[in-house]
Amino acid sequence: MKKQLKILWIIPYLSISFSTTHNISIIGGTPGYDPSELTVEPGDVIVWTNNHTFNHTVTSTDLPEAWEDANISPGNSFELTFDNSGVFPYDCAYHSSMTGTITVSSLESEYPFLLVETFQLYSNYPNPFNPATNIQYSLLNNTQVELLIYNLQGQRIQTLIDDFQTVGYYSINWDATSYPSGLYLMNLRAGEYMETQKLLLIK
User: Fold this and answer.
1) Where are the domains of the chain?
2) pLDDT computed for residue 9 by the predictor
3) 94-105 pLDDT, tens per residue?
4) What tens digit of pLDDT does each residue of 13-55 get?
5) Which of these CATH numbers, 2.40.128.110, 3.10.20.30, 1.10.490.10, 2.60.40.420, describes 2-104?
6) Pick from 100, 158, 95, 146: which is nearest to 119 by CA?
7) Residue 147 pLDDT > 60, yes or no?
8) How many angstroms separate the Cα of 145 from the Cα of each of 15, 17, 42, 150, 194?
9) How many whole angstroms separate alpha carbon 200 and alpha carbon 173?
10) How far is residue 32's CA from residue 192's CA, in Å, rounded to a whole number?
């Protein structure tokens, strides 16, 4: 029985060390990419293959750009390794209806028992952003958590989290589509821990 328990704990460690290749077919139309939304892990490789009859691009639309634009002729591919967690939207520079999103989850979020050492609010990514950004934080203890968004006038404009949470790493997206461009503040309160960081929305 003890040997079986050891094996169960080893498996997550082993799975972290291997990257995975994900294939996206460029097919034109709307949304134009198959699949158009994909969640991967840091270190994974994405391969876009143009299976359509026209040239298409895989154009990064976050600010700053996450990668250089790729012009892909029919039958050819573009390959990219994602090393950082976050949300990465992209589109075709020739065809505005073709859109896609790559979400890179953090290893800490998938295996929260591995690396938690402190309470911490991490820098959001991307930053600057338009219109969505990913916010991650870690909890050293089980505690009541509030994650709040403020404008520069000190007004609370959105509550992202108001709940009791257990120790671990957490990730949440803030969609600021309905808010104007400008500087905002995110504030994390977890027990006695409190931290505030700036977010820059550019539209």
Assistant:
1) 2-104, 107-201
2) 33
3) 998 898 888 877
4) 333 345 688 999 999 998 999 999 888 877 788 999 999 999 9
5) 2.60.40.420
6) 146
7) yes
8) 30, 32, 27, 16, 10
9) 14
10) 48
